[in-house]
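Example record

The entry below shows one chain as it appears in the dataset: sequence first, then structure tokens.
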Amino acid sequence: MSAHSLSLGRILRFAILTLGALIFLAPYIFMISTAGKAQSEIFSSSLTLIPEQWSYVENFTKALSRVSMLTLLLNGVIVCAMIFVVQVVVAIPCAYAMAKLKFRAARLMMVLVMLGLLVPIHATALPLYVAFDRLAVLNSYTALVAPFSISVFAIFLFLRFFRALPDDLIQAARLDGMSEIGIVARVVVPNAWPAITAFAIFSVVAHWNDLFWPLVVVSNQDYATPPLGLLFFRAAEAGDDYGALMAATLIITLPLVAAFLIAQKRFVEGITMTGLKG
């Protein structure tokens, strides 16, 4: 009876997880289907996932020719990489200081970090735009990267992780004559890769998909990020050609899907360790 209940429970859980996966994958499946359809088939009365006349080559050719898709992808990689590197370089020492060093302002800094999580980019967009305009850095990587160089979420995530590191490990490094910077570089960072990987997924996904801020500071297609490039693509003679638009969207989203599948194990490990050891 117990084995039967256990088997029934597993089947039920599997069915629920499968249904949830299908719900979340449905938009992506529909996008793949639409990317292979001709314009007349997309607006036909019959709704089928498998295209009657495969137009993948035609639609992907339009997506790659009407805008510089390689430039958009390269801009996305450069912007996301620069933001992530700067965020980690700033956040790790800050989180280490609050987690392992004794100073009076530690509690106040923690409060400020928590408050910083509540401030959206939209609230600071106007003053940042005015400042970048006066500095003449609009339409540049600087304007795309600078507002996100400090991530309070990264500080909070690493703080939770660093608190779980044994104090004896830090003390032993100090007894060996290491400076605090040396401890961060040679002791803390090697042990923090699960948390860094987990944060990398959050950071890259957020900034790869960000449309609001690039739309504010970029009007030159040479610096357009992938989501902004889709707007340029639709304006570049694409009109309502949804087959080509879905093909372009598929090209832009594939790097994120591939990156997540590659880093999935580390991502789950980082989230689990950060959550349980905080």
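Notes for this example: The chain has a mean pLDDT of 83. The CA atoms of residues 1 and 73 lie 56 Å apart.
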